[in-house]
Each structure stands twice: as structure tokens, then as C-alpha cells.
Amino acid sequence: MKTLWQNCHAATMAQGVYSIIEDAAMVTQGEHIQWIGPRAQLPTGDYPAVHDLKGAWITPGLIDCHTHTVFGGNRSGEFEQRLQGVSYADIAAAGGGIASTVRATRAASEDELFASAARRLKSLMHDGVTTVEIKSGYGLDLVNERKMLRVIRRLGAELPVSVRSTCLAAHALPPEYTERADDYIEHICTEMLPALAAEGLVDAVDAFCEYLAFSPAQVERVFVTAQRLGLPVKLHAEQLSSLHGSSLAARYQALSADHLEFMTEDDARAMAEAGTVAVLLPGAFYFLRETQLPPMDALRKHGVKIAVASDLNPGTSPALSLRLMLNMACTCLRLTPEEALAGATIHAAQALGMAQTHGSLEAGKVADFVAWQIDRPADLAYWLGGELEKRVVRHGVEID
Ligand code: DI6
Ligand code: FE
Fold it and tell me: Cys-Cys crosslink for 265: which of 168, 296, 298, 307, Cβ 3.0 to 4.6 Å?
């Protein structure tokens, strides 16, 4: 049905850039946006349904393009340890960290993982998120990675949110492969990825390129396999040290390279040329009390597209609000509120390979949007959490 949404202003992100229309109107037809523009230019016609948005600002539905929403247990005990001065790397070396979440995730049933992940995902959705990416990476063997990916698919099927699944089997070394990282990578490339891809469980492939995870050479083998399977790649890179994983990602036309605190200007140049999005994760920066800032000036100078995501995970970013991440992106990483909002809409869509259909308010795109009762778009990055009055529309249908 043709529906008119009026008495609103719009932050559209049209053509991939932050742009606004004051006193706007929008027409949706079924799942899509049919027309958007200044109300004075609204095409005359018959609108069977009309919604008065009461002066709200409409934005694209928020997109959280990097999360680890599915996991067993939680690590608040490690949080307490870190507050006593123990480092993330020390905890990992002592068998905690990712390994402890792997144990809890392997022990959990599919239903248990679904129930806890659904609670967290609903929290993101209450903040205006209509699309989310979720990674595996706490199973680290075929059976348990499959279990996570099936939960990710089920979340998308049962909740009113679009879910992209990313296989992060190369997240950490499972205990069965201690001291045999190359063998684990071989197992991922010859057994796990081909099987999981054939089952239709994988939309993209990610890896953790870090001195305490996998080397660039090991990551490259995973990328070659992903390409052979026709799957796009992403990479956790330059979070704790500079291994130039982001340049490697660019060489494989990665959708994104994520974290990036320790990246160099050469990395930024390579990413810009490849169209690889820089996904910044202020929650992890904050929670680890990182002090090294991602090189914003180099990213801007070379025109790298910048996204902002929650990195929702039990170890380094237990973040249940993407809007809070927008604030932290501005306060901690020095983005402008406009950059932050573009980072959670159009650039996040690009980081998921979805920019043709999502991430902006333009004719022809999917009608995923939020009508916020706020005074200015910058308010979205201004308030620290809490709940803002709003209406959320997905695929042209209002959800609560
Ligand atoms: N970087 C991160 O911040 C998360 N994974 C990664 O590769 C941390 C995951 C965890 O500590 O459980
Ligand atoms: Fe992550």
C-alpha cells in the first residue's frame, strides 16, 4: 500500500553523503521508498495511508556492521580482573579471554545461545537498529561454528531485523590445535569454510589478524579460500599492533577492515583505493582503555569511508547500544556527529556490501527508517544511552 509519511525532517545520506531535507515528506510503497523530498514538491496523488510524524527527524534505520552477539556465558569477572590491573593479553595467555567464551559457547545448546543472543539483539533494536551483522568465532570447530551460524540465521528469521552472518572461524586458536596454528588454518580452508558455505550459512568471511591471533600470511590463506568460494572478506586489523592487515584486506577488496587504532597512512591509502570501509569500534577502545587513536586525519585525507559499530562481545565491548557508540566515536575518537551518523547508516551498509539497497533514504531503497523525536540529528550522538522516543519502520512496516 502507498503510504505517506509527513510533518518531518530527514537526514537522508543520499548519494552516500550526509545531507538533510527540512520539512520533508516520504512515500513508501510496500517494502520500498518510492519518493522522498521537500514536502512542497510532494507529487499530488492518492495516499491511502498518511502518518503525521509530529516534527520528527527521520534517518535510515541504524546498521550495526560489526558484532559478536552470539556467545555463551559472559566475562564480567575478567572485567573485575582488568580493573585490578591485569591486561587483556595476560588474561588471554592464562587461558581466559576468547578461550573462556569458546568453552561456554561449546557447552551451550542452540536454544540457549539463541535465547541470550535474542535478548542482546533486542537491546540493539530498541535503539533503532534495523540491520545487524553477527559473527561466529567462539565455536572454533565445525560443529560449534555451524551451531553459532545457525543461531545467527535463526535470529534473522525470528526477529524483525535484517541479519548478515560472518564466519570468523579464524578468531583464535582452539585448544585442539595448540602450537599448530597453520594446521588450524588448513582445517578452516579445506573443511570448515567449504562445508559452512555450502550449507548457505555464510555471507562473509572475517579473521583476527594480530600477534596474539593469526599472522598476515595465515589470514591470506583464509582470504584465498573465501574468494574461491565467492564470499567477500573483512578483517580485524591493527587493534593492538601494526601488522598491516588493513593493507592486506585492501588487496583482497575487503568490504571492511575493523578496529585500526595502529594503522598507518599507507594502509589508509590502500583502503581508499580498494573501497574498503574503515569500521571504528569505540566500545572496545573505551573498554580496553586504549590510548592509541585511529588516524582520523589520514582516513579523512584519503577519503576512506568510515563506519562505526558496537563490536558487541563479552570480552572487549559489552555494548548494547549503538547510539552510545556514536557518542563515544565523537568523544573518544573525535568524529563529528555527522560522520558518526553516516558511519552507522550508509557507510555501515557499504561495510556489509548492502549499500545498493540499505543505509540511505532514497527512492528505490528498502524502507527501513527511524522517526526520532529529537531537535537535531546531532542529538543522536549527544545523549548517552537511555531511550529516545521514536517510531521504527522496517520493510515499510512499523515495528515497536
Ligand atoms: N577483537 C575484539 O575486540 C574481539 N575479537 C576480536 O578479534 C574480542 C573478542 C573477545 O575478547 O571475546
Ligand atoms: Fe570484533
Answer: 298
What's the average model confidence in pLDDT over 174-180?
A: 97
Does 97 score more than 90 pLDDT? yes
Give the CATH number of the domain where residue 14 resides. Answer: 2.30.40.10
Look at residue 109 and tell me whether its pLDDT is greater than 80. yes
Both 153 and 203 in a single domain?
A: yes
| The total number of structural domains that make up the chain | 2
Q: Which atom in ligand 1 lies closest to the alpha carbon of residue 281?
A: 3
Say if residue 25's pLDDT is above 90. Answer: yes
Q: Indicate if 13 and 112 belong to the same structural domain.
A: no
- In the listed set 311, 334, 351, which residue is the last one of a domain according to the structure? 351
Say how far apart CA 287 and CA 187 lie, in whole Å: 33
Nearest Cα residue to 22 out of 8, 5, 32: 8
List pocket residues of ligand 1, CB cut-off 6 Å: 97-98, 101, 171, 208, 236, 239, 284, 311, 313-316
pTM for the full model? 0.98
Mean pLDDT on 123-142? 98
Query: Whole-number mean pLDDT of the chain?
Result: 97
Atom of ligand 1 at shortest distance to CA of 98? 12
- Residue to mutate, 246, 261, 311, ligand 1, most ligand atoms under 8 Å from C-beta: 311
- The answer, yes or no, to whether residue 69 has pLDDT greater than 90, is yes
- Whether residues 53 and 68 fall in one domain: no
Burial 66-83 (b: 16+ CB within 10 A, else e): bbbbbbbbbbeebeebbe
> For the domain that residue 293 is a member of, what is the CATH number?
3.20.20.140
Distance separating alpha carbons of residues 382 and 337, to the nearest angstrom: 8
The residue to mutate among 313, 317, 325, having the most atoms of ligand 1 within 8 angstroms of its beta carbon, is 313
| Residue 34 shares a structural domain with residue 8 | yes
Pocket test for ligand 1, best of 311, 316, 317, 325 (most atoms within 8 A of CB): 316
To the nearest 10°, report the CA torsion of 383, 389, 395, 399.
Answer: 130
Find the domain containing 384 and state its range.
2-60+360-399
Assign 173 to helix, strand or coil. coil
